[in-house]
């Protein structure tokens, strides 16, 4: 095997977490790295994620953690095993950003935002000699196999690196950089692409005028949602034409697929998941003593105006029988008719199928071209699973590139508690 050499040139297209973690790892291995990005600065979607506190990963047991990747678990589990949640926390703390575990088990930086971490990270990358070519939009390859970009002036820029990492993201929030235009480029190379679809998004729902006019933007707290036998506790938010929020996102893949199959999805809302059906029925068996339905439900069942309004969506005349009313409160039906747009989704499903890649995340049809991050065909709920997988696939692609270039892995640390990412 040949030793690491700065004469080896690597092009990374995409300046999100997957591309940047690969750039750091490869630069430490002694190769020359250039990161190309079509935006004026890198990490824009990463910064946006920081507005919600920057949920880096999750502290739950590893087996449960990787189960969140559903159909992609068999291929994602070994990738995340090689760069685990504790490794991501150690890397973050190596950049001077301490982390903590929240009450839900989610992991955040103590700064509770992305900007300090990104600043430290970019400083480290510059110190490692990583070069950035910003305002460079990737157009594909020319007839000689060179990468082709257009720069800010519209001029053509070409590069012919020893290996290329594609880390262009999905297609949500395109104004931040990831617009999904790469799908056409790869399809023209004969590479199959699973259609890009929204993930972790809201859904449309034909609310009545009462809900639309009085409760838009109101939260539903301490609820549970059930679909296809899967129940998720959490919160949601009522929108003018639908529903969104953490509990919805956790079921979004199942709901989206059902809508794709049959045009709608019947979701059930439990407004009092803390009470059993029997306990709630007993409370509702109390004498009403002339109280209005709203007053009675507020006192006996602890429901607010929004919850009561949602019950009336399916039962304008609320049932009087305590058991029937309790069942409605525990399983209010919500008929979802569509998904919110891909552009507004938190993340993207679809992309490059793993069948198009070898075990090193290299495209079988394009030797020397690797793929990482949200371009790959996997999805996961919010809660730290998105960023963890993005980082882990960036590290896995690094390992693949080093193998392709015949650079020994010993060029990187094998200490998982080090600030250095390791393949």
UniProtKB/TrEMBL annotation:
Residues 197-347 form the RsdA/BaiN/AoA(So)-like insert domain. InterPro entries: BaiN-like (IPR004792), BaiN-like_dom_sf (IPR023166), FAD/NAD-bd_sf (IPR036188), Flavoprotein_PP4765 (IPR022460), RsdA/BaiN/AoA(So)-like_dom (IPR055178), RsdA/BaiN/AoA(So)_Rossmann (IPR057661). Its cofactor is FAD. It comes from the Bacteria. Keywords: FAD, Flavoprotein. Residues 9-399 form the RsdA/BaiN/AoA(So)-like Rossmann fold-like domain. This is TIGR03862 family flavoprotein. The lineage of its organism: Bacteria, Pseudomonadati, Pseudomonadota, Alphaproteobacteria, Hyphomicrobiales.
């Amino acid at each position: 095997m040949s030793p690491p050499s700065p004469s080896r040139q690597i092009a990374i297209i995409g300046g999100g977490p997957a591309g940047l973690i690969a750039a750091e790892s490869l630069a430490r291995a002694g190769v020359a790295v250039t990161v190309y990005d079509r935006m004026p600065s890198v990490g824009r979607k990463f910064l946006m994620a920081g507005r919600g506190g920057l949920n880096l990963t999750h502290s739950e047991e590893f087996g449960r953690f990787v189960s969140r990747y559903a159909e992609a678990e068999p291929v994602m589990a070994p990738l995340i095993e090689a760069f685990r949640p504790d490794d991501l926390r150690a890397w973050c703390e190596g950049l001077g950003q301490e982390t903590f575990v929240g009450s839900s088990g989610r992991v955040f930086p103590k700064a509770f935002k992305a900007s300090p971490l990104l600043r430290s990270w970019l400083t480290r990358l510059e110190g490692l000699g990583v070069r950035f070519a910003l305002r460079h939009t990737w157009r594909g390859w020319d007839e000689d196999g060179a990468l082709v970009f257009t720069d800010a002036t519209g001029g053509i820029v070409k590069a012919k690196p020893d290996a290329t990492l594609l880390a262009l993201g999905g297609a949500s929030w395109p104004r931040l950089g990831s617009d999904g235009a790469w799908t056409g480029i790869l399809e023209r190379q004969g590479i199959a692409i699973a259609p890009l679809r929204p993930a972790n998004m809201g859904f449309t729902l034909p609310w009545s005028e009462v809900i639309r006019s009085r409760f838009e933007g109101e939260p539903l707290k301490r609820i549970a949602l059930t679909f296809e036998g899967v129940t998720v506790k959490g919160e949601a938010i009522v929108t003018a034409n639908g529903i969104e929020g953490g509990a919805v996102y956790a079921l979004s893949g199942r709901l989206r697929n059902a809508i794709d199959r049959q045009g709608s999805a019947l979701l059930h809302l439990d407004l009092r998941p803390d009470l059993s059906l029997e306990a709630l029925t007993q409370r509702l068996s109390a004498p009403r003593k002339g109280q209005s339905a709203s007053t009675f439900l507020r006192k006996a069942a602890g429901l607010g105006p929004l919850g009561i309004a949602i019950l009336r969506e399916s039962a304008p005349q609320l049932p009087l029988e305590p058991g029937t009313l309790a069942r409605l409160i525990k399983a209010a039906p919500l008929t979802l008719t569509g998904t919110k747009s891909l552009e507004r989704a938190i993340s993207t499903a679809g992309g490059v199928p793993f069948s198009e890649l070898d075990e090193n995340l290299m495209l079988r049809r394009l030797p020397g071209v690797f793929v990482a991050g949200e371009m790959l065909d996997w999805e996961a709920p919010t809660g730290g699973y998105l960023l963890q997988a993005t980082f882990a696939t960036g590290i896995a692609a690094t390992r693949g590139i080093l193998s392709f270039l015949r650079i020994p892995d010993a060029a990187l640390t094998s200490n998982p508690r080090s600030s250095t990412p390791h393949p």
